[in-house]
Amino acid sequence: MVYVKWIFRIIFWGAFAAWLHYTLPQHDIVRIVGTYEERQELGDWTKIFWSKPDTQSEGLINRDVQFIQGFDEKDKARVYRNEDTGWSWPPYFKFDTANLYTEANDAISTKDAPEWVVITHYGWRNEFLSAFPNAVAIKPATGPDMRIIPWFNIVFLTLLAALFWAIYVRWRRFREARIDPVLEDVGDSWDAASDNVAEKRGRFRAWLDTWRGKAR
Amino acid sequence: MGLIRLAIVGFVVLTIVYVCLSIYSRAVRRGKLEAEWEDDGMTGDRDAFIEQGLEDYDGSLRRKLIWGVYIVPVAFVMILIYVINFM
Fold first, then answer.
1. Residue-wise pLDDT tens digits, A174-210
2. Contact A54 B1 (CB under 8 A)
3. In this complex, do A87 and B81 lie within 8 Å of one another by their Cβ atoms?
4. How far apart are CA A171 and CA A165, in angstroms?
């Protein structure tokens, strides 16, 4: 029973951490090598990795999506999709997809004369599911070894931890004050009931034993 | 359409938070007034003292700060829209 509880806890908090990792912004330092548009079939469940634009009708299962191609400082390929989040989840309120596409095209550079930029994005790259992180902002970087401090994530996660702690402490106090005494009451009467049963059974046994010639 | 959906869902969620926080905050204040009554060893009408204290609380700045439940997220979203799209 203890194992079940722990497995359940690990799955729940693991899923929560993964969800935060997907949703919170991350930064890559890349040099942009190109952009392209490609028609995407979004008919199956992997559409959860794509935006759901306001203008997308329910029946529409494919549409053109913009992509930004880059290489990071370790010369690893990075591909981002460029889509509005609009008013829906995750709450980035990104409406400037066309502007970002223009900025990305402006920042295209070659391997010999690289122009490094910081791309803020959320989401995961997964080759098997054809999932791409969504680029949110492009800012010039000082160089490939620029140090980025994720202030937003630091503040956000600290506040989230504080909120959870505040709720947890109050819930514990509430449980100690209101629920535990009731459970103890129930436990006491349960103990009393089982004692009673045990005693009755003991007497019944003793009575049965008299038939077998034992002394009572 | 997306804006309307966000506004409705946001309003419902924030209203739930607002109501829960209001009830909780008033209960905390009531507990503090009761503790004050016990600690100071006051005599007389205990219920009237607590009622008076809660009425003072209803008019206080602390009570009005709970409106921040609505104001802070809306302000945050507006700042976010500006930062993401126009900066």
1. 888 888 788 877 777 777 777 777 777 777 777 777 7
2. yes
3. no
4. 10
